[in-house]
Each structure stands twice: as C-alpha cells, then as structure tokens.
From TrEMBL:
PANTHER family: BLL4482 PROTEIN (PTHR35008:SF4), BLL4482 PROTEIN-RELATED (PTHR35008). Residues 186-262 form the Cytochrome c domain. Keywords: Heme, Iron, Membrane, Metal-binding, Transmembrane, Transmembrane helix. The chain crosses the membrane at residues 20-40. Pfam families: Cytochrome_CBB3 (PF13442), SoxA-TsdA_cyt-c (PF21342). PROSITE patterns: CYTC. This is Cytochrome c. GO terms for molecular function: electron transfer activity; heme binding; metal ion binding.
Length: 286
C-alpha cells in the first residue's frame, strides 16, 4: 500500500499561492488605513457624497445639481437669470471645490445673521440672493421647485459636517478665505498686463468670453465679487482655472482691473419679483 506523505517542499508549494494572496490583502488593508489617516476632513466629507439619497429626495438633489451646473440654460432656472453665468462659474465644480466659494459644509452655518439684510436668513434666502446679484436676475419665489432643489443639493453637500450656525455673517465653514491686504495697494495697470498674460486666452480681450467677467452678461455691482477684496480672495484660490498660482499682490491688481470695467448696476427693487411671487423677502426693501 502506498502511503501518501507530504514533503516539506510540497507543503510549501501549496502554501505559496495562499501566502501571496494573504500578503496582497494585508498590503491593501494597510494602505487603506494609511490613506484614511491622511485625507483631510474635506476629502472625507467628499467621499461620503458618492451616493445620492434614495427615492424622490435623490432626484431633487440631482435636479439641484443640474441647475447649479447649468443655471443660465436650465428650463427651471433660466427665467431667473439675467446673465451668462451659472452657479458653478464661481462655486467651482458645482460647489465641490474645497476653497473657491465651496458649498461643502455650507448648510451647517444656517440660519445665519446677515449684515447686508440686517436680519437672520436661511440657506434658501442666501441662495436666492445670489440669483439677484451674482446672476443679475430675479429672486425665485421661496419654496419654488428651483429654490428647493438648489437648497437640497447644497444641504446634501453638507452631510457629515457638524451644525454650527454663524451669528456673524452668512458664510459656511469652507468659504473662500479672506486675504490679508493690509498695506497692499492694487494697481490697475499692472492688473491689465497680468490679464493679457494669464486670463485673456480664456476670457477674451474684452472680458466677455466663457464666462463673461465684465460687461452686460456678467455679475452686477451688487455681487460679492464686485468688491475688489472679495474678488482678489476668490481669484487667489480659483484662477487661472486649474492653475491658481497668483500671488496676493497679483490677485489684488487683477481684481482692480477686472472691476474697473462697466457691469450692470444693482438696484434691489429691480430684482425682486412682484408681491404675489415674492413669498416674503425678509431684508429691508429700499
Ligand atoms: C459671480 C459669482 C457667483 C455666482 C454666479 C453665484 N455665486 Fe453664490 N456666492 C458667490 C460668492 C463670492 C459668495 C461668498 C462665498 C465665499 O466667499 O465663499 C457666494 C455665496 C453663496 C452662498 C453662501 C455660501 C456660504 O459659505 O455660506 C450660497 C448658498 C450661494 N452663494 C448660492 C449660489 C447659487 C445657488 C448660485 C446660482 C444660482 C450662485 N450662488 C451663483 C459668488 C457667486
Ligand atoms: C483655462 C481657462 C481660464 C483661464 C486661463 C482663466 N479663467 Fe477665469 N474662468 C474660466 C472658467 C471656465 C470659469 C467658470 C468656471 C466653470 O464654469 O467651471 C471662470 C470663471 C471666472 C470668474 C467668475 C465667473 C465670471 O464670469 O465672472 C472670474 C471673475 C474669472 N474667471 C477671472 C479670471 C482671471 C482674472 C483670470 C486670470 C488670472 C482667469 N479667470 C483665467 C476659465 C479660465
């Protein structure tokens, strides 16, 4: 009778594929742990966003995202837009960008005190105000489908962040960081040179291309970006697109140059709908 014995070598051969598999699994686990440890809280918030909510709620999140990405053309929002911009023109990547007017975590700051309206406003109010100023359009009615969709999308981008209402200004935890401009003077002529070098390829010599940054089809002079300090801080983290490498001085010079051009003049009453459609505008109507 033949006795089957397993030699040491045979055992080793049988074990080898097993141990190779084990090592691969081990390496994967370790790198996952290391990766989880190195990503910032913003990345973590982002990675939680991969799934849309179930059912109708998810559909409204997607609708809100579509409006944010294509505000000037979307059938639900275009009637409220008075220029060629979309929310994503400034809230880069539909608000998923971590610093350029980010929507990540934004909903957690609301209701918030607003110095401009001199009252406490909701996230919905805040989004609708961008329609009047940055989009140079008309304020959609509170509770309208466009308003609910956009607000739902922004709230979804805030999941997992801690609620912390802002008692000083209507800005979320990841808003564009302000620059320290003390002692720095902006120079329009220098801004013009920089513009030709670093911006005109995309925005055109007349600032009216893809998307327009001055003139009739851009934001009006009531918008946040019409203030040089605000525009400089946004340019610093956002432009040139995918290569935001301006120095503070350059960003300020460019802001002064861009905002030295004509743009629509903001008069609040011209951007409010008639009473029946207003719901309740809770700022002071001048
Ligand atoms: C011309 C540029 C521009 C456009 C277009 C624009 N916004 Fe804004 N918006 C801003 C800036 C600048 C701020 C200030 C936030 C910051 O500095 O991070 C802001 C703030 C906001 C905030 C508050 C953010 C916070 O941190 O609390 C919301 C909400 C918002 N916008 C919604 C919208 C929506 C919705 C649209 C499209 C209908 C839109 N915005 C279009 C420039 C713009
Ligand atoms: C590679 C092309 C490109 C370059 C270069 C570039 N931009 Fe932009 N810029 C864009 C695009 C595209 C957007 C809108 C973002 C989007 O839709 O994703 C934008 C948005 C803007 C906006 C806000 C929206 C608006 O139309 O008002 C301003 C202001 C702006 N750019 C200024 C500048 C300045 C100043 C420079 C030079 C430092 C510059 N950009 C360089 C492509 C560019």
């Amino acid at each position: 009778m033949e006795v089957h014995t397993t030699t040491g070598k045979q055992r080793l051969n049988r074990l080898r594929p097993l141990s190779v598999g084990f090592v691969i699994i081990l390496v994967c686990c370790l790198s996952a742990i290391v990766f989880a440890g190195t990503v910032g809280s913003g990345d973590r918030a982002n990675s939680m966003l991969q799934d849309y909510p179930e059912g109708e709620l998810g559909e409204i999140v997607k609708l809100g995202e579509a409006i944010v990405m294509n505000t000037a053309e979307h059938p639900l929002s275009k009637q409220y837009v008075g220029n060629k911009l979309n929310c994503t023109s400034c809230h880069l990547d539909g608000g998923r960008h971590e610093t350029a007017a980010s929507f990540l975590g934004t909903a957690t700051a609301y209701p918030a005190w607003s110095p401009r309206e001199q009252t406490v406003i909701t996230l919905e109010d805040r989004a609708l105000n961008c329609f009047m100023r940055s989009q140079n359009g008309t304020r959609p009615p509170n509770g309208s489908r466009v308003s609910v969709a956009v607000t739902t999308y922004i709230t979804w981008l805030s999941q997992g962040s801690e609620l912390k209402m802002n008692g000083e200004k209507p800005l979320g935890p990841n808003h564009t960081p302000a620059l320290d401009l003390e002692g720095i003077q902006p120079d329009v002529a220098r801004g013009e040179e920089l513009y030709t070098d670093r911006c005109a390829d995309c925005h055109g010599d007349n600032g009216d291309e893809e998307p327009p940054i001055w003139g009739a089809d851009s934001y009006n002079d009531g918008a946040g970006l019409s203030r040089n300090a605000k525009l400089a801080s946004w340019l610093k983290v956002a432009m040139p697109l995918d290569d935001a490498t301006l120095t503070v001085q350059e960003a300020y010079d460019l802001a002064a140059f861009v905002n030295s051009h004509k743009r629509p003049h903001f008069v609040l009453s011209e951007h409010l709908p008639d009473d029946a459609k207003l719901g309740e505008y809770n700022g002071t109507v001048k």
